[in-house]
Amino acid sequence: MTVTPVTATARPVSVARALRFELVKQLAPGRVRLLILACWTGPAVAVILVSGQGTLPSDTLFGRQMHATGWAGALAVLSFAGSWFFPLLTSVVAGDVFSSEDRLGTWRHLLVAVRSPRRIFLAKALASLAVLAVCVPGLAVSGIAGGLVAGNRALTGLDGHQLGPLDAAGKLLLAWLCALAPVLAFAAIGLLASVIFGRSPVGLLLPAFGGLGMQLASQVLPMPAAARVTLPSFAFLSWNGLFTSPPQLGALVAGVAASLAWAAIATALAYRLFMRRDFTSLAHDGSVRRAITLGIAPLLAVWALSAAVAAAATGATGSGIDQAKLQSSLATAFAHLYRVQGHEVNHLNVTEAQLRVTASCTKGSGLVADEGPGNDWRCTVTWHLPGVSDAVGQAVYQLDVSANGRYVADGDGPNEVNGYFVVRTPYGTAPNPLWQFDGLVDLLSPTSKG
Amino acid sequence: MSGLCTVRARGLTKLFGDVVALDEVDLDVPPGLIHGIAGPNGAGKTTLLGILLGLAFADGGSLELLGAPAGRGRAVPDGVTGFVDGPGLYPALTARGNLAALARLRGPGAPTAGVDDVLDQVGLTDVADDKVRGFSLGMRQRLGLAAALLSRPRLLVLDEPANGLDPAGKRHVHRTLARLAAEGATVILSSHRMDDLEELCPEVTILAAGRVTFSGPLGKLAGENGELDYRLVTSDNDAARRVAAETDGIAVLEDAGGTPNRGALAVRALLPALDRLVPRLVQARIAVRELTPVVSPLETAFLALTERPESPEQGPTAQESTESREAGR
What we know:
- By secondary structure, chain A is an alpha+beta fold.
- The longest helix of chain A is centred in the N-terminal third of the chain and has 34 residues, at about 115-150.
- In chain A, the strands form 3 sheets. A 5-stranded antiparallel β-sheet of chain A has the order 3-4-5-6-9. A two-stranded antiparallel ribbon of chain A has the order 1-2. A two-stranded antiparallel ribbon of chain A has the order 7-8.
- Chain A folds into 2 domains: about 15-315, no CATH class; about 325-440.
- Helices cover about 55% and strands about 10% of the residues of chain A.
- By secondary structure, chain B is α/β, with parallel strands linked by helices.
- Chain B folds into 2 domains: about 1-215, Rossmann fold (3-Layer(aba) Sandwich), CATH 3.40.50.300; about 225-300, Alpha-Beta Plaits.
- Chain B is about 35% helix and about 25% strand.
- Chain B has a 6-stranded mixed β-sheet, with helices on both faces. Chain B has a 4-stranded antiparallel β-sheet with strand order 2-1-4-5.
- The longest helix of chain B has 16 residues, at about 165-180.
- Chain B is globular and about 70 Å long.
- Classes of the chains: A alpha+beta, B alpha/beta.
- Chains A and B meet through helix 1 and helix 5 of A and strand 6 and helix 2 of B.
């Protein structure tokens, strides 16, 4: 019998090697490779196809402009991804990264191979991040590529002002950058759920259902604007504020900051729970009680704290949607779009200052307070007719205002001003720009008096 | 002593709540030896192996692996590997893919065997490029062993490595473990198959309810056993029966412990009595063709050391509690 000298050192595997191992495992199943392929090709195909259709997705922000410019298509991709795709993506990528080891019964194998739970956690978190870092830019690049094929033309902002292609491209890139913060927040929630619930599918589903739940809560439940904008799901859409002039940065900054806080706290919680896990038991299905006390409760505390900070910093109270803000926003958008219409129909070159547009809005025919979201806002816009002294025009709009500050203005007469008719544009014919358009109210700005 | 031992455990205790999974376990395993761990379900075998692999930590006692202290807050030393509760493999990867990923994980500085070499050692070369998803339990066990061999282990810890193996697979595994031990590595394996342990392990430890009831060479175990039943096949069984009946310390049985006694004698004796019987048979010109224990010494000892009288008044024991815990693993 050979007797070997018995001395040994403990040498855990490096994080870089563990990360590579994780990536091999993550990319082995066909679904992840398919997901990456879909991210890099799907948006381009969708933008090109939809831009060529007669009916446009006007429910999606910028969707109604997809005939006018490809940049609208690229923005519609971001808008759609924020509403539906990002929570699903983070579910698949991050929500399964720990629980897959539970399902396969490979934790012990992994621990013996890597010899450091801390490095396993880091490698898994970084692997999720790496897959997201491939998927998210893929969506952006693909959407932009599709947009460029559909048409590189000026974009109409959410207050009706025109953005040249370069300006639109810059703001689009900035919007994608801002959307990374809530992606990180949802990925961290996925990690946390995956650690808490083990092999239970709840961990995999939580980011997707969490995102859906946040959106529903945000739309249905009455909540202060500061609470609304600090939900990670809101941050997926808070880039909207970049497309007004001046940009509405309050909600954007609050949303991004709160999302980063959610990401940091959820990751820290996941790390703490993972390091305390007992791997002597193969079966780990999590528990609802554990999820509430160690996952949901701390995140609710983060939400409450960030909402309090946002409220204190901006002085925002209530829903953030009131009569004065709506009137100001609608008047601004109308003025910009009247100028566009004038140019397209009558080749008039008027300025917003000459129009001196004002708006008067009421909610619920005066039966309820003029405050908050709803589809019962009715506004009358008044402007001075250019070239005709002391003559004013009036047009009526029905406004459907969402809780997130976005509204759709629907022209209600007179027909020759804001009714449906077709105008000639550089890219062909298009509906009257004053007929239906999207606008945005800054939820965190102080109430204006205009 | 500790300088010569690959594993040196003193007073290892592990609790799961109120349940004592390991109770003051001592274990010494020198290098180059295959050491078997036997015990009934819930005896604490998997817990002990898990502690050796660094998957769990003892609540009391001390442990040295490869000369280095091991336990909470310390990574398991290089050279210690193995699996408990079955090997961990990734079904979406091929057999080769699983091993290649593991080899890359270890890095260039670590001692690593070739992927093809270890696949050949466990007899999986033909299915190297098949996805593990379609592998049988036995193939997974062999691939798990191959994964462990990749790191050129100095201490290999295996939990039921023969589970699901067909005879050819078992031969591959046994041959591989024997070669590993011959090269100086220590192998600690648990099994419910006493014949496997007897074939592979010069030394065994028997656990019952978390306690060591025996630890040492198999020969010593056989010596402690008392009388065993043997099956004796000779060239003239009638003559052999007469000789056996006349030999002190030999009792001729009607059957061999319930085993059909076709063309064989069954005798009960201590080893010294058998040592006297064989020369007498030869002197009587009777050829001895087979003399084997009906029940192996290890199995006999296992049953003697681990069986407890039933006592319905008692509540669940630690053993039963850990059994139910381990049943879920």
